[in-house]
Design a protein that fits this description.
The protein is an alpha/beta fold. The chain has 3 domains: 95 residues, Rossmann fold (3-Layer(aba) Sandwich); 102 residues, 3-Layer(aba) Sandwich (Rossmann fold); 76 residues, Rossmann fold, CATH 3.40.50.10800. Helices cover 39% and strands 14% of the residues. Helix 1 runs parallel beside helix 15 and helix 3 packs parallel to helix 4.
Length: 346
């Protein structure tokens, strides 16, 4: 479902979006993977969970989330009293699509001695079936707090799970999902770039497959990659994540050169997220005008999904959105058994 686009000819879209934002007491959030024109008009630009937490702290009545559906759902879970709109409801995610709630529920029931550490890139219904939600920046800190003899399901991203398994030595049962953008990065094209730019470091997201990760000088979340880009003394950086984050890098460090690693044979746009690209200024305007499409979740699902999110914040609240953070520990590990594994989504 997309906000219906009636004729917008002659409208000053930027001015109208600002007017509607004021009229609606709205806040506009943009993920790093959004187009530059959307990033530039947003109130906050950042990682998905960090954006939802920022929005929850404001007195805005409406959240316009320029990202993908699971991100807007997370904003609704953390701000159930607010209206959350998404410019294009078809803005999904290949990781979410790879993990249908009914299949995840059956998988959990087939492995009752495992707890589920679930990457935030999943539906609200799958969050509700999980024990602890993790982000790419908080996952290792949370893993370090789980007893070594506790069996773990990690989903839906097998590359992030595999990276964590290699880094920590923990065996985990991996759900076989992938991000289609990070999966598409070409090792051949990366090696060509490294030859063309000798000495240029590579920053990669842990959703990348191992053949990309093994060439990386830095592996971390989107925010971690951005911070590395600004901190590295190198004047050229090769970036192995969705390339629209380069807009923020160029704004913050205009004297440096940032090069996105291509996907496929180097002649496609497959390193760009097709779901993120569905959001446009026109759709944002119409969504603010009509307050549609909006995120609607049942109270049951929101309450169940909020529990594993709160566990993450208890166990690793100081690391969420901050990249790789070492291995601090806490003594009181949150026990997962009080989640009802039979709760399913809408």
């Amino acid at each position: 479902m997309t906000a219906p686009l009636t004729t917008l000819r002659g409208l000053d879209l930027l001015a109208e979006i600002q007017r509607l934002k004021s009229d609606r007491n709205a806040i506009i959030l943009a993920h790093y993977y959004q187009k530059p024109e959307i990033q530039d008009l947003a109130d906050f630009v950042g990682d998905s969970l960090d954006l939802s937490r920022k929005a929850a702290e404001t007195d805005a009545q409406v959240i316009a989330f320029c990202g993908v559906r699971f991100m807007a759902e997370t904003a609704k879970i953390l701000s159930p009293e607010k209206t959350v709109i998404l410019p294009d409801m078809d803005a999904g995610c290949s990781l979410e699509d790879s993990c249908p709630p009914d299949q995840f529920k059956a998988f959990r029931e087939a492995h009752p001695d495992h707890i589920a550490l679930t990457y935030i890139n999943c539906s609200a219904a799958v969050k509700a079936l999980s024990d602890i939600i993790v982000t790419s920046s908080s996952a290792q800190q949370i893993l370090d707090q789980i007893p070594l003899d506790q069996k773990i399901i990690f989903g839906p991203d097998r590359h992030l799970g595999g990276y964590l398994a290699r880094k920590t030595g923990r065996e985990m049962l991996l759900w076989p999902g992938v991000c289609i953008v990070h999966q598409a990065f070409s090792e051949t094209e990366l090696l060509k770039l490294k030859a063309e730019h000798p000495g240029a470091p590579v920053a990669a997201h842990p959703e990348c497959p191992p053949h990309i990760i093994e060439h990386a000088d830095h592996v971390g979340s989107t925010r971690s990659i951005l911070e590395y880009a600004l901190a590295t003394p190198a004047d050229t950086l090769l970036v192995a994540t969705e390339p629209h984050i380069i807009h923020q890098m160029e704004k913050a460090a205009p004297g440096k050169t940032f090069i996105g690693v291509p996907g496929g044979d180097g002649n496609c746009n497959c390193n760009m997220c097709p779901y993120m690209a569905l959001n446009t200024l026109e759709k944002l305007y119409v969504a603010l005008r009509d307050l549609e499409p909006r995120i609607d979740l049942s109270t049951q699902v929101m309450d169940a999904a909020r529990l594993p999110l709160e566990r993450m914040l208890q166990m690793a609240g100081n690391s969420v959105g901050k990249g790789d953070v070492g291995k601090p520990r806490i003594d009181n590990v949150v026990e997962p058994e009080d989640i009802d594994p039979n709760i399913s989504g809408d």
